[in-house]
Structures are given as C-alpha cells and as structure tokens.
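Schema walk-through. Below, the input block comes first and the output block second. Nothing else is stored per chain. Lengths vary across the set, and this one has 410 residues.
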Amino acid sequence: MLIPKYWAEYTIEFTRINSKNKNQPPQAKKSKIKRYGWSNISVENAKEHAIERCEQARIKWQQGKRINQFEGIANYDELPIREQIIANYQELDCITTINSYGATCLNSQDVMILDIDNWRLGYEFRDPIHQDKSLALFQPTPYMPAQEPYKTVNTGWVTFVTTLVFVACVFVAVFLGRFQDGGLLIFAGMCYWLLTWTICYFISRRIEQKNKRQWLAKHGGYLGMLESSMQKFLQDNPESSFKVYKTPMGFRLIYLTDLLAFSNEDDNKYEDNNHKITNESDKKILQIFEALPVDHRYANLCQLQKCYRARVTGKPWRMGINDKPPKQFWYEFSAQVGRELTADEDAILAYRKKWLKNYQKVATNYRACEFIKIIGNDNQSTHNNIDKKIAKVIALHDELCQCDKTLALA
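--- output ---
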C-alpha cells in the first residue's frame, strides 16, 4: 500500500543548452525541476529520494525526453497518495487519510471496496444514438446484460424546422431589398428560432426524464440495474458475494469472499506506471474490475497505489461547507520542505487545522453510506462466515461511515 508516512520536496537548478532554434547559436539557459520524495523510514530518506528523482528527471530532459518540470500538490495518477495520515490500523492493514477536499478516506490493502455511480449504470443502458459522447469514458462491460433502453427524444427535427423558417425569413428580407424591413425580419426570425427551440428542448427533456423514471421503475430502480450488471459475474463465480451500500450518488460494494491484495513491488519503481500481473490475486482483481461498471480511473489508481479507497465522511458541499482546506503545508516538520515555513505558510497551516476541526464537527451529523443488502453467496450473509479480517475491516468502515445511525447521506 503506497501511502508514505514522510514526504519531502527538492528543487534543482541547472544550466542546459537550448539548441532548438537552428538559425541561432546554442544558448545556455537556467532551468528548474521540482520533485517530491517519499519514505516510510524518515524525512531524511524522503529527501534523498526527492534528490534522486530530480536527477532522474534532469537526465531524461537532457536526453530530449519530455518531462513535467514541477509536480502538483495532488497528482494521484502520478504520485503515491500524498495525504495527511489520521490513523494507522496495522493489524487490519488499513490507513485513514484526509483527501484534497477534507473528507476522511479509508485505505485498505486487501479488502476490496468499489464505488459505482448511478450515472454509470444508467449510461450503460442508454440508446447509443443519443449517448452523451463526453461521458464515454470506457466501453460497456461484457457482463452487462442486454436491456431495452428507455425511449429518448430526438430534438433534431425541432432544430431543422426552426432553422428552415429562419432561412426563409432571411430570403424574404433579401427579396424585399429594404434594409430596415429586412433587418426586422431577420431579428424576428432569430427570436422565433431561439424561443421555439428552447421550448421544444425543455419539453423533450421532461418527456425523456419521465421515460427514464418509468424505465427505472420497470427494472427495479438503480439497485435492480446494479444487480443485473452483477448477474453474469456471480453466475460465473458462485462463491462470490458483495455487501452493498447506498451512497448519495450510487452504490458501494465490499467483496466478502477473499482478501485481494495487489502484488508487492518496490515503491521506488512507481514512476514506471506499469503494474504487472504477477499473481492470481491480481488476475482476480482485474477480472472484477472488468466485470462490473467500475470507474476505470479508480481501477487504475488502485493498481498503481496498491490499495482500495472509500470516503467515510461526507463531502463538504453536501453538508453546507462551501470552501475547501488548503492542500499544502499539513506537514509539521519544516525539514520536509527543506526550509523553515514562512509566516504566510504558518497562517495557512493554522487555517487548515481550524477548517478540519469545524468540518469534523459538522460531519458527525451525516453518514457517508447506508447498508442495503448482501448480493451473492448466501453462506456469506453474516460476518461469522467470512474471513475475520474482512469482518473487522467492514466493522471499522461501518463505524467511520456511521452506517447504523439515522442520518442524512452526504
């Protein structure tokens, strides 16, 4: 599980020869590269790692390869999880951290936790002709059963007719040959086109939403669609089962059958961004990721960071908190940045502590998810019939999420 305890940052400044412009002689140019380093041993070890990564980046750059000169604060797809650690449950191989917007996350090394959004379930069943291409982040899973899609309303005919009338108005204006009257006709045509299209668009959206509600009710709602999407996988793997929770915008699944840990690799090889399938556990993990409508970006991050993540407190904006805590300067030791913190940075750190204290107070009035049911192997319907470690991690998860309390979801 790549959640380092110690972090450091280091910046190198060096002179390189800029020879891109062939019409001018090579010129010396000063450049900077900043890299983070991490370690579970000490701050000094993290700083050595940062220096090493700076040198590696400098060599790549001088070889003509493209690099990022500076790393961001929270590059989750490029760096290990760089978050403030709250607690380390060593016997459970779990760590709780504070994410970029202040919520608490549970990170588990080998208990699989998956979040599935409602829109992914709904999107899988949409008529491909009317799918929003901006949401096409991944191909439909092969385990998704064939379903009759709900009827969508095509507004193309509205655009065609209103545009035709608008063009006719323009031709009439040109035929009259009078600028004033022609200009008025063009203006009137534009107003007519815009008003008609807007009214028809909103009417069609209301009809489509009604069709979707009826279609969802017919198929058992989003929960029924989730069960349908899991049906093929559970048929092929009858020993498997999942504990299902409801979240504000979808569902959360916890795999009850086995502990599924990613293969252990050298943490410093993380920059290769190539996770190799080296054991049967990895194969099972990827099989589940591909079988269920899981966000592909989340699946990739799990493989890179060798853990599963679940938010166990509410999102701030759902609880009436409109701002976010500062992402930087949560580390207490000035050695981690190689210098003393400035007065402004000390003020930011103080504000972060104040913000988190207020957030944690408000978060006690909300829960992150609500238990619904167990889907799959009936023999695993109670915690007595599953691995003890999985049962303990689930108990920790339920406690942190406040699942058993009658509170609003956030």
